[in-house]
Amino acid sequence: MDKNSIVGILLIFGILVVFSIMNQPSKEEIEAAKHRQDSIAQVELKKQLQQELELKAAKTNEAKALPADTAAAKEAIIKELKNQFGVFGKASLGEEEFYTVENNLIKIKFTNKGGRIYSVELKNYQTHDSLPLILFDGEKTKFGLNFFAQNRSIQTDHLYFTPEFSAKDILVSGPNVKKGDEGKEKVNKENPGESKTVSFKLQVAPDKFIEYIYTVNYNSYMVGFDIRVVGMNNLIPSNMPYLNFVWAYDVPRQEAISQFGEDRYTNIHFKFYEGDVEDLSQGKSDKEDLSTRTKWIAFKQLFFNSTIIADDYFPIAEVRSDMFKDDPKYLANFTADISIPYDGKGKDNFGMKFYFGPNHYQTLEQYKIGLESLVYLGYAIVRPVNKYLIIPVFNFLRDYISNFGIIILLLTIFIKTLVFPFTYKSYISQAKMKALKPEIDEITKKYGKDKAMEKQQATMALYKKAGVNPMGGCLPMLFQFPFLIAMFFFFPTSIELRQQGFLWATDLSTYDSILSLPFTIPFYGDHVSGFCLLMTATTIISTRLNSQTTASQGMPGMKVMMYMMPIFFLFLLNNYSSGLSYYYFLANVITIGQTYIIRHFVDDDKIRAQILVNKKKPVKRSNFQKRLETMAKQRGGHKSGK
After folding, report:
1. Lowest mean pLDDT among 326-330, 467-471, 588-592
2. DSSP 3-state assignment of 46?
């Protein structure tokens, strides 16, 4: 391996070190997060006081059976609430009741208080500790319209809606769905199931109300959501162009705590209308005013997301993430404050949808609105590799094989076979360089260290005369680099690997552990990953085989670097996906096997003999070189003529 390769490896090493340092939170960021949590606590205290007031009001519903003095207290509370809520005062009294609507994929719990979605459960998934997977829980949720009416601030999530249906539990049924077809709209069109609609009304008068309409289809993660505002033009000022819809909740943990797992990938994403997908900062609190039209806003975790999608677009919105550090139950509080158009003419309808489901690439891609970008496939240079090669092959294998360890093995064989021509070419180039080592040693001895320029020129002349390209061993390796990096992003974010075990690894999407340590090693962790150890050992063996092929005896520092890199990746990948370490281990084993096979069929003595023959041949000059020589002669003749 030549000087350029050394520089490349040093640059990669430096980038990784800087990246790990930059991602550590500063003391100021920790203090800021604590301050934000204190602010949230104050808001929660105010909310608790409001709930106590509402609880007192709710108890007055029992006044008919109470003594006269209690009935009088009831009248006083009702009068107070009417002063607070105006025509909505009656809706501030009631008892909270729950309703469920479920299909084969999701179970949604609704509450009449706020007419809102109280919680969402994904039926086919569990948390890391085998509990039902709840995307969000009602006690930690804000969901409703905020507006002014009769000079009063109204928040609909504090008011009681009337359900326009009678059943407490509604099942949306349909035909059997085979494994792998969950949530596929194409399957739903070919074999349609039921569709159920439920609505809640906040009614002031028969012709004056706000209505939330929800539509749940069979075998779909999408939930229709429409807001109707009817006859409110005399109550809500006509000069208000928007009503604010606030959706916020504390994000519950679904995975085990890991700095390279869910904690790292949880943040808010949003897509501008006919524009790009952007996101808030990862791992730290952030907010952004979306002053231009927005298509959707996603509250994203590592493997799941809850996304609100406009049928058309949201004109204005504000998104905010308040991250919780080392909280065992919750990752962050996410808030979306969205402006809903209001024309004040008596009838307004705004159509939206919710997506409550997994970050599964094909499932998200089918909607054709850019949701698939929530599955991070890496940098632009490697994203096409994952999108057009790795994911299709992975899904093809998954259709026929249930063991994910075998799937990764076959995927590795496929990729190594695909890049084998480059591997072979790289080996041959390195063998040629090794064959020239005696001549290179003579040049080094002849010019020494003082004549570096002459030494370089003589070496390049030797390469040219022998027909050897010094970059021939490195360039083929560059073609393999995108596959190496693509896998680095594919395995940790692939929901297919979630909670799928192989050998001692119980979950290939996160790290495996064969030994728990009673202490924490900086940059390494408190456990020992078995697949990471195997990857490191095979990397060292592969490095040794490679060093035997290359002429690096004159560069002792290079040897040290080559053996330091596996140790560095041992520390880096100990906390990463065990599926990734398993893949790198298999790739190393296959590379070692390929190296031995190539050595068996490639004769180094024959290569050197051919190089010696090439040295005796006259150097063929290119047309470009000939033109340069002609121009040089002409300039020389012109000067002599003068």
Report:
1. 467-471
2. helix
Q: What is d(CA 373, CA 277) in angstroms, rounded to the nearest whole number?
A: 7
Q: How far apart are CA 309 and CA 332, in angstroms?
A: 21
Q: Is the dihedral of CA 321, 323, 324, 328 positive or negative?
A: positive
143-157 tens-digit pLDDT: 999 888 877 788 888
Query: Do 546 and 434 form a contact (C-beta atoms < 8 A)?
Result: no
Cα Rg, the chain, nearest whole Å: 33
What pLDDT shows up at residue 61? 44
Alpha-helical (H) ranges within 23-85 are 27-59, 68-85
Query: Mean pLDDT across the stretch 39-61?
Result: 45
Element (H, E) at 580: helix 578-601
What is the average per-residue pLDDT within 105-130?
Answer: 93
Tokens 């929660």 belong to which residue?
A: 44
Q: Which residues contact 185 (CB under 8 A, 6 or more apart)?
A: 220, 366, 367
pTM: predicted TM-score of the whole model, two decimal places: 0.74
- For each of the domains in the chain, give its residue range(s) and CATH number, in order of start: 96-374 (2.70.98.90), 383-500+578-616 (no CATH)
* CA dist., res. 376 & res. 372, Å (int): 8
Question: Could you give the CA distance from residue 453 to residue 463 in angstroms, rounded to a whole number?
Answer: 15
Side by side, the strands of the sheet bearing 132-136 are: 132-136, 116-126, 106-111, 98-102, 169-171
